[in-house]
Amino acid sequence: xxxxxxxxxxxxxxxxxxxxxxxxxxxxxxxxxxxxxxxxxxxxxxxxxxxxxxxxxxxxxxxxxxxxxxxxxxxxxxxxxxxxxxxxxxxxxxxxxxxxxxxxxxxxxxxxxxxxxxxxxxxxxxxxxxxxxxxxxxxxxxxxxxxxxxxxxxxxxxxxxxxxxxxxxxxxxxxxxxxxxxxxxxxxxxxxxxxxxxxxxxxxxxxxxxxxxxxxxxxxxxxxxxxxxxxxxxxxxxxxxxxxxxxxxxxxxxxxxxxxxxxx
Length: 264
Fold this sequence. Notes:
Number of domains: 1
Structural class: mainly alpha
Helix content: over 70%
Order of helices and strands: HHHHHHHHHH
Shape: globular
Largest sheet: none
Strand content: under 5%
Number of strands: 0
């Protein structure tokens, strides 16, 4: 409740100081030479590779326990995302004007980015929670009283995994996933759309729809709100580290809630 109240207060202060439609009028420009299809191609490669690797593992480990299958899938996906993240950074090094600095990978701003990441996330939480609550209410109205939000598969596995696997899942969820997804969705996709549309809020909205569509369907509107927060933080600061830290903090809260739920 305290986080909700503080978040609402931050949103009110933000709107008084910087109205929504004009908040990004003077945001930093990230010029790049990427064709419009490039980030969508990377998104396709990621999804296709995950599907293909999953099918290979199913056939290879068909006789193994389900827990072994799940761990192998998570390990392979994590390795894929590490490799693709390195490729994204290399791409940014050559495709963005001023290289990695133009991309927003500036480590001298880490302290500032961590602080504002926490502020941005707290400010976004009321909208995220409200949209998830409205999703539940709509689901119970149209589907039935037993309607619930889908559980994220990784969080379910985290609650039931052995200690070694649990540690790996936590590392992947808190570090590998946020870095990969922010480099892809904010760093490449949003930057490219902004360069073509010249309208930051439009590129944030389109990127957020794509980002939310990659998550469980019942979480769409809540994840969309989170993604808008991530996109705003990137455009406003010009630092890719800020949305990465917001993502890390959000995933940390989700993991902590899953672990506490397991204990209780």
